[in-house]
Each structure stands twice: as structure tokens, then as C-alpha cells.
Amino acid sequence: MVGLLRLGGILSALLLALLGTGLFLYPGASVLRDLGDEALRGAGIPRAAWRLFADLSPRYERWARGRLRSSRASALPLSDIAGTEWPLFGSVFYLWAVEELQAAWERDRALAPRAPRESARGAIEAAAALVLDPGQASWVKRHWGERDYLRRENVAYRMFLIAAATAEVKLLGERRHLPLLREQAEGLARELDASPSGLLDDYPGECYPGDVLTAIAAIRRADAVLGTDHRAFVARAWRGFSGRAADPLGLPPYAADARSGRPRGPARGCSNSYVTLGAPELWPEQARRLYALHAQHFWQRRLGADGFREFPRAHAGGDWYADVDSGPVLAGHGFAASAFGVGAARVNGRFDHAHPLAAQMLAILWPLPGGTLGGARLLSSASDAPFLGEAAILYILTRQPHPSARLVASRGGLTPFVGVMLSLYLGGGALLLLAALRRARFARRGDWRAVRAPRLRLGLLAAFGALAATALGLGALGLALCALLAGALAMPGGARSARSG
């Protein structure tokens, strides 16, 4: 028993040292390195985005190919938004990010040793194939019918198809889906143009103007590969986001009635950031006003952090909230509103907002050895879209100021929240290394015969180790790390763990 306990003590010391280094000190050093990147303060693609692209691409390819081989998509209930929508959203975010990385590389080939479309060809193919696979559309087929789901409304899903088919041509030169692309881009544009309000539903009775705007932008981007010209349609489409279609603040609402165009409730931070991210390429003049209104009513500095609120300051309540679109809302700060707000601020040239938001985002992402962003992974769906968060971050960090944007420089300072996160990383790592040192000393010189409940301690170490292995197999990284930490702490760390005599 003493031999087993000594071995368990050595193992626990090693685990604590590894966890302290990998879980705290490495992230702290990584964040400190990225905070000095000038591309966070202005135009250009941050180094963190290039690293994320290199780390994410092979993992995204493996996951997407596995998803294609499985039949899981056809078995999900309509209510499972994370299982049905998120895999396609993540794939489109990834493809859009690679388009921007490729464009940047073509301007400056010193940015990467190989063209992004070559180094990530497998991931591009897999992401596009996943979106374009009819087997992933079972939920919208149930909403709209097998015959009509590609011909009537169904805005978000048809936007996914247009975006993926466009990226396939731009990045790979693959033209086999051109007939589908033309059919969807032309058909959806005609249907939106003919709509009384300029809006259409995602699902029957559910219209989200942010998705409509993104679909309009996808149609406009498709012009580059189809040789079409939807500029006149885009100009007319502004009617779906202005006048009586706007909420009392003058912003497009989170949800609307597609028939009348009238808002179903107010604008929200998550939808505002999404709308103001896409609006400059469609309506540059109007986009400046939309972003100014978003900042006026939703920007806040609270509890040492800058960010966009999920609900406007005049709204009663909602400071502590969560749903599938907003993510967690803490003290008014919306996770989705602030994350997509980084991209919106960058596109609109507002680096006075983009810089502090990006710094906070990098600080909270918990970068781990091997390239995983722990914070993004925890907010994704482990079973259906484990890389949604990382794909969205890649998309956000690759956004560049629109040519029409009036640049506002960063003020240079970082928020106290960034300092708190750095203290957590570095302080947590130091404490775990100290605990590892104490356990290593006890393993060599401690009185193992006096340890309380030795069998229970060894049992806990083994049980938590098995739990960590199972969690890793299921993709639950956070649970695996917590289990390893709990198992290591179950072993004695000093004199207080033993009784004398």
C-alpha cells in the first residue's frame, strides 16, 4: 500500500505541474504575446487568427468528414438549434474566414508559407460538402416540406448554401454546384424583392432580420462568381431594415413579422452586432448610422470591462440572462453581442471599440497547448458543433475595415478585466506549481503509513483519471481537465494530510 501511495503522490505532483503549466501559465503567456499585436489595434489580420487557422483546419476537416458519414443530423428534433443550425453556421464562418485569409495572403505572401486555400484544402472541401449535403437539411425539410425547402423562404439555410457554394468556387475553383448556386441566389433574391416587407421567414412564423441581411450579402458576394449584378436589388432591400421595419431606437429588431415587416420586440445586442457587421458592404452610408445607434444605446463599461449589452440601457432587466442566440449575459454584457461586436467594430473602423473588445476576447478564450481555445469550446456544442466557437472567433478576427469606413483609432489602454484574467492565469499557475512541489516533497519524505483513508485517496485518483479519459473521448475538454485536477488534489500534499503517531 505504501508503494502505491508513493506512486500516486508522484503522479499527482506531475499532474499538478502539467496542469499549472498547460492550463494557466501557457494561456497567460499566450495572451500576453497576442496583446502586443498591432493588428488588434488597426487593420490587418492578427497573428492569433493565423495560428488559430493552422490549428483549427485539420481538426475541422476530421470533424466535418465524420459528421458527413454519420446519420445524426436526420435524428435531431426541430427544437435542437445547437444540433441543427450550429454545424452549418460554423462551417460557413470557417469558409468566410479562409476567403479573407486567402485575400490577405495574395496581397502579402510573407504572411504564411503557403496559400490558405492550399494548406487547408481538405478542411475547405469538408466544410463546403457538409453545408451542401442534403442529409444535413432534415430539420428544414420538416419545417418547409421536401419539395419546397429550397424554393420558399427558409432564409438562413438557403444563405448557408449560397455562401458555401460561392466559397467552393472562389477557394477551390470547384464549379459543380454552380447550377445550385445560381438557382438559390436568383430565386431568393426574387422572393425577397417580391415580399411586401422585404423580409422572409427562417422557419414558419419566425423571421430574423439579421439572417435576411446576411442572405442579401451572400447573394451580392455570389455575383463575383456568377457574373450577375444584384446592386439594384440590394438598394431596394434596405426597406426591410428601415422606416416602420425599425424598432423605436431606429435599429432593425431581433425578430419581425415577415408579412407586415413590423418588429416583434426590440433590437438586441446579438442581432445588432450581426447586422452592423454585414451592413457596410451593402449600404455603407446607412451602416455608419446603424453602428452609431448600436454604440449609443448598447455600449457600456461595467465591472471593469467594455462591451455591448444584450438589451439597451433603457430596458428594465435582462442584465443576467441567457438564450441560444445571446449566450450568457453577465451584468448586461452579452457574450454574442460583444464577440460579434469585435467583428462589427473592425468592419466599421471603430478600433476604439474593437481593440478593448478583442483584448478581452483573447483573454477569456483560455488558449491551451495544441491550439484549442478552451473558452470557445465550452460555449460550443460538444456533441454536434464542437468547433463552432473557434470558427466564429476566426471569422471575427479576420474582418477588415470596409473601404467606406471612417477609422477611429484605438485609445491604447486595456480594461481591468484583462488584468484580472492575466492574474488568474499566472496566479493559478503559480499556486498549482507550489502544490506540485509540496506533493513531490511529501512523496519522497512523507510518512505514508500515517495518511488518512489511503484506499479512498487511491480510489479517487483512479476514478477521476477514468472520468478524465472518458470526457476526453467525448470531447468534453473542460470536464476532463477538472477531473484531472480533482484526482491530483485527492492525494496528500503535506503534513496536514497525515495524523501523527
Question: What does this protein look like?
Answer:
With 501 residues, the protein is mostly helical. It has a domain at 48-288 and 340-358 and 394-409. Helix content is 59%, strand content 3%. It has a three-stranded antiparallel sheet with strand order 3-4-5. A two-stranded antiparallel sheet has the order 1-2. Helix 14 crosses helix 15 (351-364). It is globular. The two termini are 18 Å apart.
- Please give the order of strands in the largest beta sheet: 3-4-5
Number of helices: 20
What's the story with the biggest beta sheet?
A: 3 strands, antiparallel
Number of strands: 5
Report the sheet-strand fraction. Answer: under 5%
State the shape. Answer: globular
Backbone CA Rg: 25 Å
Helix content: 55-70%
What is the averaged pLDDT score? 93
Cα(first) to Cα(last) distance is: 18 Å
N-to-C order of helices and strands: HHHHHHHHHHHHHEEEEEHHHHHHH
Helix/strand structural class? mainly alpha
User: Which spans of ≥5 residues are poorly predicted at pLDDT below 50?
Assistant: 495-501
